[in-house]
């Protein structure tokens, strides 16, 4: 109830923020549509996204609000992949060209200015972890290694594994696909891995469908990061309320470079999965 009061207080002042989040319309266009100044629109939008950002730890928690057994069971039901507690990936959100000496840091592999956002989802496309603070030039694996969640996983604080793509190293708590599968078990493992990990791509699509502003945030990098977090919070609220899902936007392929690094223990655990569950 207190949380709902905070959301209501943040959003009742003006409806201009809704037009901005839902359509991604320029702030001055939003102001013209509602006959208010651009400065007023900026203040309204900022009030909303900062209020939502303060609710991050309420609505975004790893591995989720459900019991780990329930989370694993839901993932297992997708393609028979056991012991999964999250699907991991990064996505780029376009921003305007930032000023200052660090402009080049925000240019990604497609020569587009962006922030690179790490997210983890459960089997229901609810986001359970978000890292929105990195320039577009930073590799996915570096973002993961710099996160507090990486340290928690390395210490064995969670029972289960994440699924990540070829842009991550294979670790005891982060399983990736075989780049060159040799056996039937490895091929079947890759198929199940792709289907199960697909939940995070589905979550990305839902978020970008709900919040068209994420197609291109024409704001400074710090504000872009705050807006992304606000959209994640709103997305999770929509999922928890079982609101109607929009048509999913296909996630753009940002050409993630494969990580050649191999962790021996991670590789052995992956082989165990392939041999015991998919052979």
Automatic annotation (TrEMBL):
Indicate whether Metal-binding appears among the record's keywords: yes
The protein's location, in the record's own words, is:
Nucleus
Among its keywords, does the record have Transmembrane helix?
Answer: no
Q: Which GO terms describe its molecular function?
A: hydrolase activity; metal ion binding; nuclease activity
Q: Provide the DDE Tnp4 domain boundaries.
A: 88-236
The cofactor required is: a divalent metal cation
Chief localisation class? nucleus
Q: Which InterPro entries match?
A: HARBI1-like, HARBI1_dom
Which Gene Ontology cellular component annotation is one that this UniProt entry carries? nucleus
Q: What are the alphabetically sorted keywords of the record?
A: Hydrolase, Metal-binding, Nuclease, Nucleus
The record's family statement is: Belongs to the HARBI1 family.
Q: What is this protein called?
A: DDE Tnp4 domain-containing protein
């Amino acid at each position: 109830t207190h949380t709902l009061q905070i959301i209501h207080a943040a959003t009742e002042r003006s409806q201009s923020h809704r037009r901005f989040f839902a359509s991604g319309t320029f702030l001055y266009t939003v102001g013209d549509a509602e006959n208010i100044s651009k400065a007023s629109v900026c203040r309204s939008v900022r009030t909303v996204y900062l209020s939502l950002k303060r609710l991050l730890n309420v609505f975004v928690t790893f591995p989720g609000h459900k019991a780990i057994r329930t989370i694993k069971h839901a993932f297992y039901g997708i393609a028979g992949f056991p012991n999964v507690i999250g699907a991991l990936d990064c996505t780029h959100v376009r921003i305007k060209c930032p000023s200052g000496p660090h402009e080049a840091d925000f240019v990604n592999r497609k020569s587009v200015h962006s922030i690179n956002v790490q997210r983890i989802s459960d089997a229901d496309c609810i986001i359970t972890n978000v890292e929105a603070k990195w320039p577009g030039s930073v590799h996915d694996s570096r973002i993961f290694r710099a996160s507090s969640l990486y340290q928690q996983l390395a210490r064995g604080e969670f029972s289960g594994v994440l699924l990540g793509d070829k842009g991550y190293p294979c670790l005891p708590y982060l399983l990736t696909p075989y780049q060159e599968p040799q056996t039937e078990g490895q091929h079947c493992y890759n198929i199940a891995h792709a289907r199960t990990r697909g939940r995070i791509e589905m979550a990305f699509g839902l978020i970008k469908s709900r919040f068209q502003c994420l197609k291109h945030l024409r704001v400074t990098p710090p504000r872009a990061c705050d807006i992304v977090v606000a959209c994640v919070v709103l997305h999770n609220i929509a999922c928890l309320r079982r609101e109607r899902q929009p048509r999913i936007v296909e996630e753009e392929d940002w050409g993630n470079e494969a990580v050649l690094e191999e962790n021996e223990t991670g590789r052995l655990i992956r082989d165990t999965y392939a041999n015991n569950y998919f052979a």
